[in-house]
Design brief:
This protein is of the alpha+beta class. The protein folds into three domains: 7-198, P-loop containing nucleotide triphosphate hydrolases (Rossmann fold), CATH 3.40.50.300; 211-310, Translation factors (Elongation Factor Tu (Ef-tu), domain 3); 318-406, Beta Barrel (Elongation Factor Tu (Ef-tu), domain 3). It is built from six helices and 22 strands. The strands form four sheets. A seven-stranded mixed sheet has the order 3-2-4-1-5-6-7, sandwiched between helices. A six-stranded antiparallel β-barrel has the order 8-9-15-12-11-16. Strand 18 (345-350) and strand 19 (353-363) form a beta hairpin.
């Protein structure tokens, strides 16, 4: 199967809760992305999970993903030839947790939209996720029509037509719809083949300053590890541009909150890992783990998720309040929504961060929001606003960050 090959794209799952996104990821990669105890108990993905998928030529009509290999061999017994690697980001699809999906989707190159063949299409979170993909500019998508083992042929065809009607007139109207059973691994090779064709490799901007979008952070030390054996805190995410090397100094923003505001964190890269491969250099295009010299207490339980890391002095501003030029999302299922009001509590997703905020002022298409936690984002970048309506949190608006209150350092 050969040695290490850099993953060259990030694909996010999308779709309604219980439609089988995590099971589909497992069928493709052989990795169960739902690893946290609360997620296991509730049988749903709450935090972002991710896995690497190799796509292989086995000398047959369709490519095979890692999840279909057996002891490193093709199903037909031949030696697999690696075509490329893709990172898969498994995201939540349950009401308020859609905010996590928004922050993860900001760094992806394509999407795997999973629909349940046994339910009418589209379901509410399917519509929301599709709107988010539309807003952030993702234009490479494959639809996995899952759970075909649970329905008749006639039911599957009707569901297929419903999905086609939903996509009609959009940028995704020509997207491939692949009927699968993730549980029984039916048509997973066809799905992987169309993913490889639909999502081109990311164009790596290696000459720019390194910038890592941090989606997860970890303490990898088991309880009771002696001080002399402790490993530094780990950042997980994707490199948006540039190159990171072992030994490089990095800055993390917004950083630590102090009495005066926020103070950026400085540390060094101690090791770099892609899906079990430890290497010396990280490049754009896939999901990577960066072990740092940080006290692991700073990174445990995703404490630094939503931050930006990179070459010191080159990162975007960090904001404690933002002024957003707001617009309604396209094709929203929400009707009769009231205008923003001062004092309204909202969720804001900007870059890799999602945080609560309070509307401070409204006027002339601009909404000023004071944030509970600072976010690091470029002026002129997009923000997504999630509002509570009828006891649900729903993606209702997006907009451009025009300015705001920058963090004091």
């Amino acid at each position: 199967m050969g040695g290490f090959v850099y993953p060259d794209a990030v694909v996010t799952t999308a779709g309604h809760v219980d439609h089988g996104k995590t099971q589909t990821t497992y069928a493709l990669t052989g990795v169960w992305a739902m690893r946290h105890s609360e997620e296991m108990k509730r049988a749903m993905t709450i935090k972002l999970g991710y896995a690497q998928m190799g796509i292989y030529d086995c000398g047959e009509e369709y490519y095979y993903p890692d999840g279909m290999l057996r002891n490193g061999r093709c199903p037909n017994g031949s030696e697999p030839r690696l075509i490329r690697r893709i990172s898969i980001l498994d995201v939540p699809g349950h009401e308020v947790l859609v905010a996590t999906m928004v922050s993860g989707a900001a760094v992806v190159d394509g999407a795997l939209l999973v629909v349940d063949a046994s339910q009418p299409a589209p379901q509410p979170q399917t519509v929301e996720h599709f709107a988010v993909l539309d807003i952030i500019g993702v234009r490479n998508v494959v639809v996995a029509q899952n759970k075909i083992d649970l329905v008749t042929k006639e039911k599957a065809v009707e569901n297929y037509r419903q999905v086609r009607r939903f996509l009609a007139g959009t940028w995704a109207e020509r997207a491939k719809i692949v009927p699968i059973s993730a549980l029984h691994r039916v048509n997973i090779d066809v799905l992987a083949t169309h993913m490889a064709k639909a999502v081109p490799p990311r164009e790596a901007e290696l000459g720019k300053p390194a910038r890592l979008s941090v989606l997860r952070s970890f303490n990898v030390n088991p309880p009771g590890t002696p001080p002399d054996k402790l490993k530094g805190g780990v950042l997980g995410g994707t490199l948006l541009q540039g190159v990171l090397r072992v030994g490089d100094e990095i800055e993390i923003r917004p950083g630590l909150k102090t009495d005066r505001g926020y103070r950026p964190i400085l540390t060094r890269v101690l090791s770099i890992e892609y899906g079990g491969y430890r290497i010396e250099e990280a490049r754009p295009g896939g999901l990577v783990g960066i072990m740092t010299g940080l006290d692991p207490a700073l990174t445990k339980a995703d404490a630094l998720a939503g931050t930006i890391a990179g070459k010191p002095g080159t990162l975007p501003p960090a904001w404690t309040a933002i002024e957003v030029e707001v617009r309604a999302i396209p094709r929203s299922l929400v009707t009769g929504l009231e205008q923003f009001k001062p004092g309204e509590v909202v969720l804001v997703a900007a870059g890799p961060a999602t945080t609560f905020g309070v509307v401070q002022a409204v006027g002339r298409g601009l909404v000023t929001i004071v944030l509970k936690k600072a976010v690091c984002a470029e002026q002129g970048s997009k923000a997504v606003i999630i509002r509570q309506t009828k006891n649900r949190w729903v993606v209702t608006n997006y907009g451009i960050i025009k300015g705001g209150k920058a963090v004091l350092e």
